[in-house]
Predict the structure of Aminopeptidase N.
Amino acid sequence: MRDAAPQTIYLKDYTPFGYLIDSVELTFKLHPTKTRVLSKIAFRPNPEATDNRFFLHGEDLTLISAKIDGQDVTVRHVDGGLEADGPARAFIWEAEVEISPSTNTALEGLYMSNGMYCTQCEAEGFRKITYYPDRPDVMATFDVRIEGEEPILLSNGNPGAKGEGFAEWSDPWKKPAYLFALVAGDLINHPGSFTTQSGKDVELNIWVRPWDEHKCAFGMQALKDSMKWDEDVYGREYDLDIFNIVAVDDFNMGAMENKGLNIFNSSAVLASPETSTDANFKRIEAIIAHEYFHNWTGNRITCRDWFQLCLKEGLTVYRDQQFTADMRSGDVARIENVLALRARQFPEDQGPLSHPVRPEEFQEINNFYTATVYEKGAEVIGMLKTLVGDDAYANALDLYFERHDGDAATIEDWLKVFEDATGRDLTQFKLWYSQSGTPKVSVSEDWDAESGTFSLTFTQSTAPTPGQDVKDPKVIPIAIGLLSPEGEEIQATEIFEMTEATQTYQAKGLSVRPVPSILRGFSAPVILEQDIDNTRRAFLFAHDTDSFNRWEAGRDLARDALLDMIENDAAPSALYLDSLRKVFADDTLDPAYRAYLQAQPGESDLARTLAAKGVTPDPDKIHAASKAFKQAKADALKDLLRPIYEDNQIDGPFVPDAEGSGKRALANSVLSLITKLDGGTLAQSQFEAADNMTQKLAALSQLVTAGKGTDAITAFYDQWKEDRLVIDKWFSLQVALAGPDDAAKVATALTQHPDFDMKNPNRFRATLGALAGNHAGFHHKSGAGYKVLTDWLIKLDDLNPQTTARMCSAFQTWKNYDPDRQALIKAQLERILAKEGLSRDTSEMITRILG
Ligand code: ARG
Ligand code: ZN
């Protein structure tokens, strides 16, 4: 149900709530369609507020009774909640409401997933549970009583009394309502324990359905590793007696950091070698860490308002990235983070959805859980650390926890801590939070042989973005190293702080003209434009002592070779193939890193690169060139492939650690080239022999790509039809790998499969999200891809606005394409917008995308 006109909320309009809350008591009487929620809330006037209107949010609630200090009160139902005459003194509000969890398909508030009750309250779901000031700056302690038949009844904090049909929980830490959680169901626990640095024993549990018990061990270990890491690296100790994680099948996002009761999408916590790939294990480890780290960066210190979302998300992503780098290979982790940033955040920042890391307006906050807030938000923290140095960063973080523990804070508070800890003025740095768009940094070189001075002149610029026509120069930390013509490092990495629009870096007293390695480790989220020839790139690919830039040089070479094939029908670059051969043959390199050295840019990536150059991308040509390029690599590396494949097979049990996963990644990347030569023979034997999902799925992908997958697809389904998470892979793989002419048909056929369930976000994304990710298929000139996605988005919007709105971003690059495709897409976007009763979520997204 959409309000008459969607309302825009502005950061500049922030005012504190008129009341403070001392305590909240909630009683839940669970029932699938008639859950009763009784609330008892102690309010008192907020001395810092100017407006004492007593307004409580509420959505889809049936009010049974409302009392103030024990007396029935008359309430006024207003847009988004209710109002009553709030006394100008402390008082007790009591209300009883009725809600219907089993019909809640939006998966926000209290809902049911496969017969179990669970909640998702961030950002504004608590208002679907009871009337409440549902805003993060209102914090309170919660005491919860759950009455229900389910054997397991969980909420936040520490456990209290428990008996037949009820359980009580009490959370001693003040928290905003978005961190509230409740779970009830027939669950079993995979137990664990952790002793904190000060000697406190914490009970740990991962709660799952009985049939998932064998998939918990890895997540439990990741949780313990995270708890230890946060103590060792940030000095942060856990603060309750118990930490519970629950796996839920129907979940809009990855996971949620509810205090002491994290709720996870089952795909983000459950894993076993037979059913999960190395990539799944790695993601699970990172998400468990992320949610656990929120206990300090998010829960103990939360956000004043939702505009400050990056305060907790950017910082927590940054922390989980540091954790992954420490647990696994730091070099590979950095490459993966940058690939993800470029694949998800760059297109957002360079299209109609571009917004600052700290947005200043929104209609639906759920639409701002974006790659910009999360991943660019993390990059901004990384830059801050680079600029102030590791020690100052550690001091600033200590000060942040000391000064703001228990607060609902802002980006201003965060930056002030750094200013106070370091004496630095961060006024200009703050532009990273307020100015949207990806800066371009171009560089030119100069060499003065006489004085031995080498100069790099940098120029930065950022194109206008929606609502921001003028951009000011930002502070950009540029990591620079210098190599000799023989490839020796003659100057270790230095940070050049760029603050002006144009600025020159100089190295003096050099005896030879050096070769610069610029933006090492991807020291800032910018697009570096270097006017260098491919011989230079090949040199860096062979010699750069910075592992990130070495990989980047190879990537740039491959990209240019591909663009030349697409634009000029050129043959695959001999220089590239030759360079790749040399580097790829080096078996002293870490296998995971080596696998990335031969990976080529994806088709969407190439399309965006072309568009950025002002060339209209042709999806068919990009697809054909990508295939031809891969074939050329296979031919060029031919004799190396089989030995690498053999050398990277592992005897013994599957271990999803850095070493094992690295070898499998390299062997599988080689398998994809071998398949180009043997047509799938090796893939078939790997498919048959594999005892783990990493090898099984890679082999299946190769068979499908080679057009030999029919039997394997059937066999795979028969083997795994009882396992939802595996069947998600089965749906997704078929759509993702379908040829350009077939993708829309394959997706449509799968939506008719009995296992397709549009109410389950994982399955919906596995099918329709995979279509959007199949570049040549989605952008098929018939428009069939656009139409199939649109049909389903329109259907899903009635049930689940949040997931619908997120998936609309598939259309965000539409203006990059030719007029025919633009017209086809525009017609679909308008069809969505014209839908009767379109959700606020989707309406905002489509309106922004249309521009
Ligand atoms: N705070 C969660 C996380 O990043 C994400 C929850 C977002 N949920 C939502 N409906 N917007 O870990
Ligand atoms: Zn988060």
